[in-house]
């Protein structure tokens, strides 16, 4: 597990350093105290969790040092950035079924109001191994880890938006009051992975000229420009199924369509505006 | 900054050691070495045409995994490519007809829409979905050649070895359309083309297992270990090397093929080389 975590962090660090060349000069160091979140009793209940994030934003990048305690021992977790869905590129009033607009084309796409806490060029396993925004609590329910982002979360429109139309397969289960039960048949969608929303520009001359669909705007080789939102805070999610789900957390137990068949719950959260500088 | 540099060096060293370790392990336990000649595929003329490409792949396989050493030439210089495996869609878990294949979860009996191909990469490799090079991607040199190695954590000569890809992909619509006269991709007022970005592997579920928390969690996914979901797998039949005209890979999927009737001139990749596993020689 440590190997997986370190291997995943390699990509984040490499991305972090690669982005250093196009740095701006802002520097922020702050600490954010996280509040407990989510259900406190019942089958998904949990109490006593706490944590802090030491945030260092420098030259267009961000280092997030997490120190968490009181979590479920040996359980799988992930870190999410909460986005300001009242601002562009989000279409006002559309959330929780959020819609965002590609400013270049004006076209809309279904998106989430959150984004994984990871560099935008990090590699996602979709749960086949730990994802780059994931971690595992130790035997005492503690976790100390660092996530490097190749963007400055204090800047507007910094974090990439995740497309909402995710990959699924159907599972023959159904949510029931107090339990998720197996059936012989059923059409419950399992939420696995998604991807980032890209910026397109149909006015550019494509390569091959006029024939390629290179309408994706590239900011460099293998670097598609992404539609981005403004970060407002953090959420730490516990995954009851023992797996991360890629660019999205899976199905929340508060999702009316999932309920007891949901697979994660928030455990800690914090607002960026409350960070102590 | 020294802190980050140290982490890069130590982590890169770790990955290198792990890769060397896996390589040595596979070599030690190796019981098959085969070579496949890759032959030219795809359009040979027109705006997407290419001729003269060639290559081979040497495969060292054991029960620990497979090491694939590719050597390709005659491709377009400095272009982004990716490597794909084709499945034997006549055998389990596949059914249906191209392009509408479905696969059956052996535990639940439920079916899912899937592709008849998958990326040539370890099943736990991290995919960037084009934000950087995906693990089955490579870039040709100035002469259109490339030599690279991909390590798989499964034996591709075994039946039901490679993970099967779910077909419903993530997409956003783009306001372009294939010109009905020229066949080229042109801007359009309406959004009509789906841009394919990424998908994921089909998992095995078992609704008879007791979930944790008991009967409350959807832990009906079968795990073979921590953060290791069991995947539905198919039999590998061969390889395709794809060129990406848009200069990016697309994650677990190659994007839209130029032969896709819904994409045509707005497609973004074409096959350049192909080879069948059945043609492998000692």
Overall radius of gyration of chain A: 19 Å
> What global shape of chain B is seen?
globular
* Mean pLDDT score of chain B: 85
List the quaternary state of the chains. heterodimer
Beta-strand share of residues of chain B: 35-45%
Number of strands of chain B: 20
What is the terminal-to-terminal distance of chain B?
50 Å
Provide the helix percentage of chain B.
under 10%
What is the rounded Rg of chain B?
A: 20 Å
Strand content of the residues of chain A, in percent?
35-45%
State the name of the first-level CATH class of chain A: Mainly Beta
Indicate the structural class of chain A: mainly beta
Number of alpha- plus pi-helical segments of chain A:
1
Overall number of domains of chain A: 1
Uncertain regions spanning at least 5 consecutive residues of chain B:
1-22
SSE string of chain A, helices as H and strands as E: HEEEEEEEEEEEEEEEEEEE
Shape of chain A: globular
Summarize the structure.
The complex is a heterodimer of chains A (277) and B (282). Chain A is mainly beta.
Would you give an account of this structure?
The complex is a heterodimer of chains A (277) and B (282). Chain A contains one helix and 19 strands. With 277 residues, chain A is mainly beta. In chain A, strands 1, 2, 3, 4, 7, 8, 9, 18 and 19 form a nine-stranded antiparallel β-sheet that branches. A two-stranded antiparallel ribbon of chain A has the order 5-6. Chain A has a two-stranded antiparallel ribbon with strand order 10-17. In chain A, a hairpin with a 2-residue loop joins strand 2 and strand 3. The N terminus of chain A is likely disordered. Chain B is mainly β and 282 residues long. Chain B has one domain. Chain B is 10% helix and 35% strand. The longest helix of chain B has 28 residues. Chains A and B meet through helix 1, strand 11, strand 13 and strand 16 of A and helix 1, strand 12, strand 14, strand 15 and strand 17 of B.
């Amino acid at each position: 597990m440590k190997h997986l975590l370190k291997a995943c962090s390699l990509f984040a660090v490499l991305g972090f350093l690669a982005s250093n060349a196009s740095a701006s000069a802002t520097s922020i160091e702050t600490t954010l105290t996280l509040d407990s979140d989510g259900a406190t009793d019942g089958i998904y209940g949990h109490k006593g969790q706490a944590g802090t994030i030491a945030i260092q934003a420098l030259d267009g990048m961000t280092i997030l040092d997490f120190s968490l305690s009181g979590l479920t021992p040996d359980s799988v977790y992930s870190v999410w950035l909460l986005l300001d869905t009242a601002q562009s590129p989000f279409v006002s009033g559309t959330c929780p079924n959020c819609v965002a607009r590609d400013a270049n084309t004006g076209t809309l796409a279904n998106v989430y109001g959150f984004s994984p806490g990871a560099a935008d060029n990090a590699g996602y396993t979709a749960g086949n191994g730990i994802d780059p925004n994931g971690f595992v609590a130790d035997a005492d329910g503690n976790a100390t880890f660092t996530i490097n982002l190749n963007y400055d979360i204090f800047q507007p429109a910094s974090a990439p938006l995740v497309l909402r139309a995710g990959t699924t397969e159907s599972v023959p289960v159904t949510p029931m009051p107090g339990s998720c039960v197996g059936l012989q048949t059923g059409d419950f969608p399992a939420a696995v992975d998604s991807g980032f929303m890209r910026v397109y520009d149909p006015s550019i001359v494509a390569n091959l000229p006029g024939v390629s669909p290179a309408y994706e705007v590239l900011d460099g080789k293998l670097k598609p420009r992404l539609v981005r939102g403004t970060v407002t805070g953090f959420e730490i999610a516990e995954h009851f199924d023992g797996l991360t789900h890629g660019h999205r957390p899976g199905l929340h137990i508060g999702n009316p369509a999932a309920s007891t068949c949901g697979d994660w719950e928030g455990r800690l959260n914090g607002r960026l505006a409350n960070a102590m500088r | 900054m020294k802190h980050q540099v140290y982490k890069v060096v130590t982590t890169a060293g770790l990955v290198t050691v792990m890769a060397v370790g896996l390589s040595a392990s596979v070599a030690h336990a190796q019981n098959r070495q085969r070579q496949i000649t890759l032959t030219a595929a795809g359009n040979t003329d027109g705006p997407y045409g290419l001729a003269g490409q060639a290559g081979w792949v040497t495969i060292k396989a054991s029960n620990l995994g497979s090491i694939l050493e590719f050597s390709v030439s005659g491709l377009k210089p400095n272009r982004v490519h990716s490597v794909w495996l084709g499945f034997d869609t006549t055998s389990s878990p596949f059914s249906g007809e191209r392009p509408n294949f479905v696969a059956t979860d052996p535990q639940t009996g439920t079916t899912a829409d899937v592709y008849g191909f998958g990326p040539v990469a370890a099943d736990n490799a991290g995919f960037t979905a084009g934000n950087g090079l995906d693990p089955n991607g490579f870039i040709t040199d100035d002469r259109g050649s490339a030599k690279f190695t991909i390590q798989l954590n499964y034996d591709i000569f075994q039946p039901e070895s490679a993970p099967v890809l779910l077909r419903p992909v993530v997409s956003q619509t783009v306001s372009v359309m294939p010109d009905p006269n020229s066949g080229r991709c042109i801007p359009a007022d309406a959004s009509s083309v789906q841009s394919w970005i990424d998908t994921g592997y089909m998992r095995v579920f078992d609704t008879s297992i007791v979930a944790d928390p008991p009967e409350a969690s959807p832990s009906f996914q079968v795990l073979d270990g921590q953060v290791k979901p069991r995947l539905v797998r198919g039999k590998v039949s061969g390889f395709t090397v794809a060129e990406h005209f848009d200069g990016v890979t697309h994650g677990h999927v190659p994007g839209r093929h130029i032969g896709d009737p819904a994409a045509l001139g707005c497609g973004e990749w074409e096959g350049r080389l192909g080879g069948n596993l059945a043609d492998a020689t000692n």
